[in-house]
Amino acid sequence: MATVQYDPKMVKEYVSKADNYRNLARASQESGDYAAAANCYRQSFTLRNRVLGHQHPEVMNDAHNLASMLQKDKKYSQAESYLNWCLKANARTHGAGAYEFAQTREAMGKLYLEQGQYPRAINNFKQVVALNERYKGAASKNTFKAKKALAKAYLKSGDREKFEEIMESARLAYSGSNEAGEEKAAAPTTPTTIAVQAQE
User: Fold this and answer.
1) Cα separation of 171 and 26, whole Å?
2) Distance CA 127, CA 192 (A)
3) What is the three-class DSSP state of 178?
4) Which residues in 135-150 are b (16+ Cβ under 10 Å) and which e?
5) Are residues 22 and 79 both part of a single domain?
6) What string of DSSP letters covers 52-93?
7) Cα distances (Å, whole numbers) of residue 45 to 64, 104, 151
8) pLDDT digits over 132-181, tens only?
9) CA 134 to each of CA 91, 120, 128, 165: distance values in angstroms, whole numbers, following the listed order
């Protein structure tokens, strides 16, 4: 299917309007009006998607921001639909298994976790871990953070044994990395501290 080429002046006009809607969305978000923020992000997303296309990162940013606001507004099915759009857009743009899926899979995991859909949340967090291990390395900070999120999902589901197992493997892999060495002054992450955070 041929890509539609828009007049540069039209593209600039649409992007300018989208920027205005995005600024309004951020203002509404800061004031706690998530419904208004979602509406503005939706307008920004629609405008950018029309002239920039699904492959443009700013279109993806709007879709993620929109999904986040819909989640905050407890409109879970709508949030899920936009995240599914992101997955399809990533597949078309980057191909299956690309690292770009990590952001959306993480958002999916958080969405399902908030709803108490633990198996679906865990499945998405597992994919985030796998993507980070593949592209960033098993001992990277990104992978460590992804494993923490997965561990917390298991803890929320009531599986403390699995939580501790994943946290232990994450610490062992990360403790010897250069990234970890640069953060020696930071407070250590332990299963107890993560468990407390997960219950908050």
Assistant:
1) 36
2) 25
3) helix
4) ebebbbbbbbbbbbbb
5) yes
6) H-TTSHHHHHHHHHHHHHHHHTT-HHHHHHHHHHHHHHHHHH
7) 10, 16, 33
8) 999 999 999 999 999 999 999 999 999 999 999 999 999 998 886 666 54
9) 17, 21, 10, 20
Question: 108 and 88, same structural domain?
Answer: no
Domain boundary at 96, 118, 142, which? 96
Are the beta carbons of 88 and 49 closer than 8 angstroms? no
> For 63-103, what is each residue's pLDDT tens digit?
999 999 999 999 999 999 999 999 999 999 999 999 999 99
**Side chain identity, residue 186:** A
User: Model-level pTM?
Assistant: 0.86
The DSSP secondary structure of 108-152, one letter per residue, reads: HHHHHHHTT-HHHHHHHHHHHHHHHHHHT-TTSHHHHHHHHHHHH
Q: How many residues are listed for the chain in this entry? A: 200
Q: Are residues 160 and 81 in the same domain?
A: no
CB-CB contact of 194 with 167 (8 Å): yes
* Number of domains within the chain: 2
Residues 6+ apart with CB under 8 A from 28: 34, 36, 37, 40
Q: Is residue 138 within 8 Å of 173, Cβ to Cβ?
A: yes
